[in-house]
Amino acid sequence: MKNKSNLLSLSVLLGGLLFTFLFWQERLALNLLIYSIYLLAITFINPDVVKSNKLKIYGLAHLLAAVLVVVNNSDLSVATYYISLLLFIGFSHNQQIRTIFTAFLASILQMITVPFNAIRHLSKISIGNFNLKPVFKLIKYIFIPVIAVIFFACLYSAANNVFAHYAESVLTNIGQFFENILHFFFKDLSIGRIMHFCFGLALTGGLLLAFFDKSLEKAELTCKEQLVRIRRKLGQKTIWYNIVETFSGNLLTRKMALKTEYIVGIISFVALNLLLLLLNAIDITTLWFGYKPSGNFSGELHQGTNTLIFSIVMAMAVILYFFRGNLNFYRKSKTLRVLAFTWMIQNFILIISVFIRDGYYIEFHGLTHKRIGVLVFAILCIIGLATVYLKVAKQKTIFYLFKVNGNIWFALLLAFSTINWDVLIVKYNLNHVDAVAIDPYYLTSLSEKTLPFLDKNRSKIHPSTNNDSEVAKVDRPEETLMRKLDQRIGYFKERYKKSDWLSWNLQDWNTAEYFGLNK
After folding, report:
1. Taking residues 467-488, what's their average pLDDT?
2. Residue 177: in which H helix or E strand, if any?
3. 289 vs 303, 352, 511, CA distance in Å?
4. Cα(93)–Cα(211) distance, rounded to whole angstroms?
5. Gap between the Cα atoms of 347 and 221, Å rounded
6. Closest-CA residue to 41 (of 24, 20, 62, 21)
7. What is the pLDDT of residues 230-269, one digit of tens each?
């Protein structure tokens, strides 16, 4: 046990050193992949971590996310990297967790409790007959007082300027004292570099040292995926039950309570189906076939899209409300299920209308991140409706929905990270510049990976007469756009020449190859 603690603590120390070597004054790229390989290796070497198939899948997913940062180097790929890392760490130290949401929370909890986890592991370190446990016993007695002094010193400094002046002087002198000692022994080191190492040490410790409290994992184990009928005992009443009983009298104690809920559900779904049928009929006749843009075309399409998506989400919430409990087992609930399934089908038709609206928007105004986001959200709504159908048909719980949808969302996040969206947007818009009212300011503001294609198609980057963007209000807009593009190319060349191999990524390399910067 002591040898395990020694090796794990040594791994955290090496991880901190590796962190400051990889990321000090570097961009996130190849260094993230190297750091991830180290974390994966230590986690799988750790004998306390169970090497389940689930852990291997999430480990491979994180490795893929790290590779995508090197290949695409987009904000989405970096966000996917962090999410996949937290999920992998959450599942590695909490093997019985079933949903990505709980795994994410477990990782955050583990990161927050880094000091306690570190003290617990360091107290187990022993070198021969010497161990650090007595030292950390002393730290335990002074840790809370030090935190309390720092906290109240900050409060008093905010309340009194004279006190703040003295506190600042004390801190400055203490910092200068340690800096002089540091420069005396190590002239090339800086306080900033040491703080960076400490941050890397804390981060690596948070990722590798497991939190000893498994209450979150135990709490999730109580959640079931299959609905069961709950038979309430007469003497067993919840606080919520008593509050409702105060306003409803003996309605809840009647045998007809479930039937009442069933009748309310029937009336609600009949009314909602008729309402949505009218909306779908209008969309099919006016939008699906023979649509001709007129008037405020952009506002007409944009206005309804967000509202429709919100209505679809609320529709799923209504279905989950009525099929949350014993109504699933009511012997006459077949009619209610048919009405709910009909409403799901109608909401699916509504999603098709969202796709068509967004398709028209893209056809006439080009691709943007927001319009792609609408398409992605519509896809998520389709998946949500499909899983809600399974929940109602198979009598599943809401926990089942979280589990299934969480895994699907994470898989889609990885899939979408494989696409170079900025380049796709620029290529599509400039290839359809004759038919699309593009916003050249938007195109020239995208990431540096688009610079080769923009430079190659300078003649196509001009204000459109159909575009109401700010570019039309600028004097000599084409010259302004070209000057902005030249400035961005100059900034890239200057940055790339200063980049180290740790900041290498494929997109920067391709851009530098186009401008002849690679040697």
Report:
1. 69
2. helix 161-185
3. 20, 13, 43
4. 8
5. 34
6. 62
7. 665 545 555 545 555 555 555 444 444 667 777 888 888 8
